[in-house]
Specification:
By secondary structure, the chain is of the alpha+beta class. It has eight helices and 20 strands. The strands form four sheets. The chain has a five-stranded antiparallel beta sheet with strand order 1-2-5-4-13. α7 links the parallel β16 and β17. α1 packs antiparallel against α6. The protein is globular. The mean pLDDT is 93.
Length: 373
């Protein structure tokens, strides 16, 4: 099996990525939120220009897949009309911000995020996947999600924490973004080609950036009603555009919020039956990861999602079906990881897609008859 190609960057709207079924065009919602009008408009664009689905990413972004190269510029015009496009490609690349999804309009989380967005041009040149988390709710919800610089709350108030450090620096709302930019500049002067994420360089972090512990981690969100509306899950993070449009309208939602956990929050929406979405937190599809697989990804060596659906109810714990050893759908370890290899599957237990498998060359029929308990 040839080694998979690691791109080292993420697609955007201005700079899409070619996949097996066309361009992947990523939309980065500001404050992780689209108004109902924007969300319905994006659904229409997914059907008009893409393959009819919208993918949720683990950075709380939205992707259209299967876009023809000739349609890229007309799609950008439509995204701009929906106010879903940064006019400057350089700002789009820097706007890699995770936001705790349960914020209230105008609260601390919203204010800090909007100030950071307004000041993105002050950031130094950073690696493509470098990102920020504004996790300033009563309990941290983004602690396990990818970010290099984190704003959080602790017993001593607002804390700025470098990823990889257990403690951070006390800041105030007035100077928080100044310190975010200063820490980003320290990183820009410190990292190397081999250490392109904050957690790889925090051994050298000056003590002035440490010392204050963040607050407790909150429970994971689950599908169902919540204070702000209703949460729905998306199997494999894939949202059928037409069904999503119908759900937004039927629920009476005023907006859609995105999360990094394959959950959408319909702001102000009612929790109504939605057979095309996950509505039960115990559904095994909430703990099953699978990339698009072949033929949609040129590096995938197997079809993935039919296998994942068939295995999901037979696997105790987390299941990851990966088309290749990159493991894009789930970078962490899973109880069972099944990896495509020249049309067959390798099996990894309690590990990642790139780990040494315990069994190799399994065909789909063999997988379906194995005992994983």
């Amino acid at each position: 099996m040839s080694a998979p190609i690691v791109q080292g960057w993420c697609p955007g709207a201005h700079r899409p990525m070619m996949s097996g079924d066309g361009l992947v065009v990523r939309v980065r919602p500001r404050l992780a939120r689209l108004s109902a009008r924007q969300a319905i408009g994006l659904c229409e664009l997914a059907e008009r220009f893409g393959n009819g689905t919208i993918d949720l990413t683990n950075r709380a972004n939205l992707q259209l897949r299967g876009v023809d190269e000739r349609d890229h510029q007309p799609l950008l015009v439509e995204l701009a009309a929906l106010n879903l496009l940064d006019t400057e490609p350089g700002i789009e690349v820097r706007r890699n911000i995770l936001v705790t999804p349960l914020y209230q309009a105008g609260d601390l989380t919203a204010r800090l995020t909007l100030e950071l967005i307004d000041r993105l041009a002050e950031l130094p040149a950073l690696p493509a996947k470098f990102g920020f988390a504004i996790d300033t709710g009563p309990k941290r919800l983004l602690a396990s999600d990818s970010a290099d610089i984190r704003l959080e709350l602790g017993a001593d108030g607002l804390i700025l924490r470098a990823d990889g450090c257990k403690t951070g620096r006390c800041v105030t709302e007035d100077d928080a973004i100044n310190h975010v930019i200063a820490l980003a500049r320290w990183f820009a002067q410190t990292y190397t080609a081999e250490t392109r994420r904050m957690a790889r360089v925090t051994h050298a972090l000056p003590q002035e950036w440490q010392g204050f512990a963040p607050g407790p981690v909150g429970e994971k969100l689950q599908p169902g009603p919540c204070e702000l509306g209703a949460l729905y899950g998306a199997a494999f993070g894939s949202l059928p555009a037409r069904k999503l449009c119908e759900l937004i309208e039927a629920s009476g939602a005023s907006a859609l919020r995105v999360t990094p956990w394959r959950l959408i929050l319909l702001e102000g929406g009612a929790a109504i039956p939605a057979p095309d979405f996950v509505t039960d937190g115990a559904d095994p599809m909430m703990t099953t990861d699978a990339c698009p697989g072949a033929p949609f990804c040129p590096q995938a060596q197997v079809e993935t999602r039919d296998i994942a659906r068939a295995l999901a109810r037979r696997i105790p714990g987390r299941l990851h079906v990966s088309g290749c050893a990159k493991g894009c759908a789930h970078m962490g370890p899973a109880d069972i990881t099944v990896v495509g290899n020249n049309g067959r599957f390798d099996l990894v237990k309690q590990g990642r897609a790139g780990d040494e498998p315990s069994q190799r060359g399994l065909d789909p029929k063999t997988l379906m008859t194995m005992d994983f308990t």
